Every structure is written in structure tokens, then in C-alpha cells.
Amino acid sequence: xxxxxxxxxxxxxxxxxxxxxxxxxxxxxxxxxxxxxxxxxxxxxxxxxxxxxxxxxxxxxxxxxxxxxxxxxxxxxxxxxxxxxxxxxxxxxxxxxxxxxxxxxxxxxxxxxxxxxxxxxxxxxxxxxxxxxxxxxxxxxxxxxxxxxxxxxxxxxxxxxxxxxxxxxxxxxxxxxxxxxxxxxxxxxxxxxxxxxxxxxxxx
Length: 204
Ligand SMILES: N[C@@H](CCC(=O)N[C@@H](CS)C(=O)NCC(=O)O)C(=O)O
Fold this sequence. Notes:
This protein has eight helices and four strands. The chain has helices spanning 10-21, 36-43, 63-73, 82-110, 120-142, 154-168, 178-188, 191-196; strands at residues 2-5, 27-30, 51-53, 59-61. A four-stranded mixed β-sheet has the order 2-1-3-4, with helices on both faces. It binds glutathione.
């Protein structure tokens, strides 16, 4: 299996977590290596990463298609119960959409810019959605459980990637969300996190 990816891309990060959860080995093709941009455009209609090329040459684009393929062909990413599977998929979708939008506002504003040039209003808007919408919703979704769909699932992989990137750019989980703090400590201490995290989130 060959993975085209970008270290800080949250969609790639969650796929790397899922691959590590399943103990799959893969060859890595960084998005900016020489010639890779042309390959990406040939393999994917949008040119975005992640892209997976299986050993038989089959090409998959879109992170959620890849996550579902991994869940279909390996263990540990979707529970057996149909309602728990629906929960996992719904939370993975929420991670890609609402959580992603909030975190992106902060990251895109801060990354590579001197602090003096940050647009504080944009950062505050992202932080407000994170703290006032995303964290309350997720704390309730997690209530009484160790992982979002009961057992570890692709929802945890997706949210772990978002939370790690959020944290790297100063969006923390404050007091009042203790179950999310404990969940993050739990999920980020799994070996898959160390295997998949980009340097900005403490990885190699
Ligand atoms: N819907 C896509 C989104 C993937 C995406 O937006 N990837 C970004 C990086 S985070 C990308 O490849 N952008 C083009 C580029 O970096 O050249 C998915 O889930 O795979």
C-alpha cells in the first residue's frame, strides 16, 4: 500500500492513525516530493491528499472512502452494532466539518505568520466555535464512555487528529470538559498516535 500524504493535513493524519491502529505497513509518498504533484493530479480528480494506492494498483481518494475501506478490510475501526456504527460515522463527519472549520480558522491564521500579524478576530471566532459549540457537543456525545462509539472507532481517529492539531495551535480543552480531557489523554497515548502524529503535534 502506498500513501500520498502531507504531515499536517488532518485528513491524512486520521488515515495514518487508522493504518497504525490496524498495524498495516505502507510506503509513504510526501505530497511535496519531486514529481508528486503531477502524480497526485493524475491519480485524484481533485489532486488532494490523502491518496492510497493498493498493491494491485487500485487507487482510492477521499479520506472517508479510505477510512471505510480500512474498516471493511480490517479490525478496530467500526463497531459491530449498526447504531454504534452510525454514531461513529456521524462523529467522524462532525469532526471533518464543524470541528474542522473551527480549528482551521485558528491554524490558517497562525501558521507561518509572525504573531504581530495575526487577525485576532478570526482566531477568536474559531476559538468561540471550538469552545462554545464543539466541546459541549462532543462532551455530551462522549458522556459515560471511553470512546465515542463505545469502543475505539474511526470517529476517535478523526477527532484525535483534530484535537492534536488544535492543541498545537493553542486551542486547548479547558476545565469543565474533564471527560474530553481524559479521552484525549487516553487516545493520544495509544501507539497509533505516536506513529502518526506530525512534528507539530509531537510526532517524529
Ligand atoms: N475531502 C478531502 C479533503 C482533503 C484535503 O483537503 N487535503 C488537502 C490537505 S489538508 C490538500 O490535499 N490540499 C491540496 C494541497 O495541499 O496541495 C478528503 O477528505 O480527503
